[in-house]
Design brief:
binds inosinic acid; alpha/beta; four-stranded mixed β-sheet; ten-stranded mixed β-sheet; 20 strands; single chain
Amino acid sequence: MAAQVDVLLGAQWGDEGKGKVVDVIAPDYQVIARFQGGPNAGHTLIFDGKKHVLHTIPSGVFRPGVWNLVGNGVVIDPVTFMREIAALEASGVDVRERLLISRRAHIILPTHRALDAASEAEKGQEKIGSTLKGIGPTYMDKTGRNGLRMGDLERPDLMDRYRTLVKKHERLLGLYDHHADRTADEAAWAEAVKAMRSFRLVDSEHWLDEQLRAGKRVLAEGAQGTLLDIDFGTYPFVTSSNTISAGACTGLGVPPGRIGKVIGIFKAYSTRVGSGPFPTELHDDLGERIRQAGNEFGSTTGRPRRCGWLDLPALRYAVMINGITELAMMKADVLSGLDHVQVCTAYRVDGTVTDRLPYDVTTGITPVYTELAGWGALDAGRELPAETEAYIAFIERAVGVPVRIVSVGPDRAHTLVRTAALAG
Ligand code: IMP
């Protein structure tokens, strides 16, 4: 019987620490496959005292013998991609040997980035807070059936196709009154595209099917988070792809029946970068304390992340939409030293209390909190303090799935597997 595909994804607004968990569990898998998003993502991994940030390349790249696939649902910026390759090679990582790219993955053009900037500028106060990597416009060209795909790199008329699309983009940029000399961008793009021809392009749906038939274990790695999903996130303050588990099916060509475990990653608190609703946001010193303690600054843009308490209705929503079977709780150490911690268990909306994430989270929503005891220092070499265990038990009861992994520090080594949860 063919093996299954496990999915690992963010259960909040992104930046949950997916890269770290993928890296920790990668030895259990033979293939790590990214299924959506692009260089808007920044997956941080720290080991042997060194920090690595990945944007497009799957987080299995540091584990020997693991294949890494960039799936059809991903959008690739050749310039960022080659920069990422150069950084990895400079730190001695053999990245080419086991890296495959789907022919069906779409390509980000410099004019997609320009369109992203123009669209955000036009929105003014209402801007999404995009990472400005060209993600939205590239997915728009994908669904608009205008896009360039990695498979086009193998065609002799690639640059003609490029210029046709750029011409269309220039017309749109004219409507935004956005004019700039993009000659240098085009030269860098053409050079990066040339360099990308040395990578192995595959019909990844067939390649994955072969791997699964051969009994190989596959982990689908998501980017961003459930609440940034184009359909189920806090629209319009979302990204432009399906970040949820269903996205692994369309972003890799995997049938739903092949999906096995769905591992949801969440932080012991909440963060959000960019604009949009965030019911449990802390605007006070405590929010700042969490930001500093958790180093909550964007790994792609450097922007300070907004910080707040854990939001259980939102987490329960993520469990429901994704079919999450187990959770990993990250950055529990960041809350160390607080006498008490708050957890949002419901919302008050128009005078009524509800434990459901409503359609409109933008206005008139007040979190209802439960206060729990805080905890002291955490150490991966020791059992978790009773207060942390009580916090986790509270979460498990509220969302109905076990928390199997707890991260208590940034390094690969700062990770605990909860045997209590495993037994449960
Ligand atoms: P875009 O995907 O760059 O267009 O950004 C859309 C929204 O998603 C913005 O609020 C971004 O801050 C957010 N976003 C995009 N990628 C990430 C990510 O990897 N982590 C956290 N937020 C992200």
